[in-house]
Amino acid sequence: MLVETAAHDRAPARTRPGRPLTSEQADRIRRIRRTGAYVLLAVSSAVFLLPFLWMLTTSLKSDADNLAFPPQWLPDAFHFENYVKGWSGSLPFTRFLVNTIVITGLSMAGNLLSCVLPAYAFARMRAPAATLMFGALMATMMIPREITLVPKFIMFSKLGWVDTYLPLIVPEFFGVALYIFLLRQFFTTIPQELIDAARIDGASELRILWSVMLPLARPAIAAICLFSFVGNWNQYLENSIYLRTVDKITLAQGLGMFNGVYVTQYNQMMAVSIISMMPILIVFFLAQKTFIRGVTLTGIAGR
Q1: 188 Cβ partners below 8 Å, 6+ apart?
Q2: Could you say which DSSP state residue 22 is in?
Q3: What fold characterizes domain 82-300?
Q4: Where is this region: Disordered (predicted)?
């Protein structure tokens, strides 16, 4: 009996449950997990890229290739003239581009000006019922934007703002709950000692916001600018409600005018769509690291 017990104690470690993994086994598991993650990312990227690739190939097809059945991915010949014909055709897309830039730029400025101040106040200033007011602000995010379309249209029509840019720009100067929330979350991550030191030096609240908070909040500001840029650049519903004159409409509306009664030039539509997407892609890739950092930091703040 003693011999059997001693032999059992001298058994290899692999027969004992719960033994730690060796370094080779741990490396093998990490490689398997990393490979699985790469495969999952590759498949997900392919799913998201397929519509864009189809749009790109369609923009290079002839009219006959667009109507071919079954559909073919690659055209028989690449027709780059679709980009020139689509952009400089019967619709003034250069004018549409200028209108879109004006609306988007002013809307971004309004979002920043109207969201930075309340975000700083909710994050660093104490006031009676501040938590209640912040909760009421967050509750407005649950209201669908479509519900306010009719009351807003009635109000702006009585003001005589229909067929002007004012209904699209002025509301952006009154704050966006999501942007205020993101900035507030980022402001809470900034050490209180920096603000206390600035107050000891005699800095006002606006001075603290301008000289201390905003330079440190560049990632969050970049994220908000990108959200605002994409949202206003691709805005179609409200633009279609308020803008009536052809010289005042935006790129999104101009793309909708490609739908013909009897025939639609899908190749030219896709070509102009790719051109209209380029500013968004360029802005995102230029500010990619800052944008991701801003979204990450605003998401992990828990105070």
Answers
A1: 123, 301, 303
A2: P
A3: MetI-like fold (1.10.3720)
A4: 1-25
d(CA 231, CA 247): 21
The rounded distance, in Å, linking the Cα atoms of 53 and 47 is 10
Assigned token pair, 212:
């201390």
Alpha helices in 125-265 (DSSP H): 130-139, 149-159, 166-169, 177-187, 192-200, 205-208, 214-216, 218-233, 237-242, 251-256
Measure the CA–CA gap between 292 and 258, rounded to whole angstroms: 35
Burial 7-28 (b: 16+ CB within 10 A, else e): eeeeeeeeeeeeeeeeeeeeee
The SS3 call for residue 265 is coil
Query: Which residues are CB-neighbours of 108 under 8 A, at least 6 positions away?
Result: 172, 225, 228, 229, 232
- Where residue 91 falls (left for φ over 0; alpha for ψ -120 to 50; beta otherwise) is beta
**Tell me: the pLDDT tens digits for 195-216?**
888 888 888 888 888 888 888 8
CA distance linking residue 133 with residue 44, whole number of Å: 40
The secondary structure of residue 15, as a DSSP letter, is G
Q: How many CB atoms lie within 10 A of CB 284?
A: 13
Q: pLDDT tens digit string along 253-291?
A: 988 887 765 567 888 888 999 999 888 888 888 877 776
